[in-house]
Amino acid sequence: MPIARLDSRALIRVTGPDARPFLHNLLTQDVETLAPGALRFGALLSPPGRLLFDLFLWGEENGVVLDVAAERRDVLVQRLSMYRLRSDVEVMPIPDAVFVAWNEAPEGFVPDPRLPALGGRRWGDQCETDATEADWQAHRLSLGVPDPTADTLLDKTYPIEADFDLLNGIDFHKGCFIGQETTSRMKRRGTIKNRMTAIAFDGPPPERGAEVLNGELRAGEVMTGVEGRAIALMRMDRLDGDLTVDGRPVRVEKPDWIPDFQG
Q1: What mean pLDDT is predicted for residues 13-24?
Q2: Given CB 3.0 to 4.6 Å as the disulfide criterion, which of 41, 174, 200, 261 pairs with 30?
Q3: Are 183 and 49 in contact (CB under 8 A)?
Q4: Are 45 and 51 contacting, i.e. CB atoms less than 8 angstroms apart?
Q5: Which of 123, 152, 106, 137 is nearest to 205 (CA)?
Q6: SS3 helix, strand, coil % of the chain, rounded to 5?
Q7: Quick one: 204 exposed, middle or buried, by C-beta within 10 A (0-12, 13-18, 19+)?
Q8: Where is the CAF17 C-terminal domain positioned along the sequence (predicted)?
Q9: Cα(183)–Cα(177) distance, rounded to whole angstroms?
Q10: Whether the Cβ atoms of residue 131 and residue 3 lie closer than 8 Å to each other
Q11: Which positions ≥6 away from 86 have C-beta within 8 Å?
């Protein structure tokens, strides 16, 4: 039962009488029904529907705690403050840390809403750890799960391309949210041209941005990786055939949570 602290994540608390409707109208996830102690996965999109911030939402009695990328926390605080207008809410960073456990979710950890195999998450000021964040990232990559902050191109990637629809990151039955029109249209059409998935190879990972080729045709782009494995944004119509990166053969490894690579 490895436990690691994620220094790449940070926390924001949103409180006040309007906290839930305020976030509900912005984010891809249903915030109105988020119970205290519950955890959901979602995003804040740009008006054209591209990913700006991935986040986890922790329900509290008087508001919501957002688990976000540490490098983007201050920018998100500014963005939320800009949207606040007349809403009676307070948005503030808090110093607590984020922890993950995998293989099992021990007491005090809430199951990761994306995928049971990802284990659980918790936040607080103290937690005994026996693993590193690098161990956690290797586990994530072994499951073929993207890290939206590391694996996406800011304001260029659509959430469905980053598998949010398959990882419980979008509530398609809630009311409006920023970027909903584009997101819903992509889902209704049912054909997704690109998706993030795992690729396997021998040796160290290619550079981020390296081109995946199917013969002489561009088939995808490498994102983050470790020895022998990486996440790539792949064209769904060019998965079959001889794939290479920098002259090295690679193969797509289909996670069991992506059904036949369909949208």
Answers
A1: 96
A2: 174
A3: yes
A4: yes
A5: 137
A6: 20, 35, 45
A7: exposed
A8: 194-259
A9: 10
A10: yes
A11: none
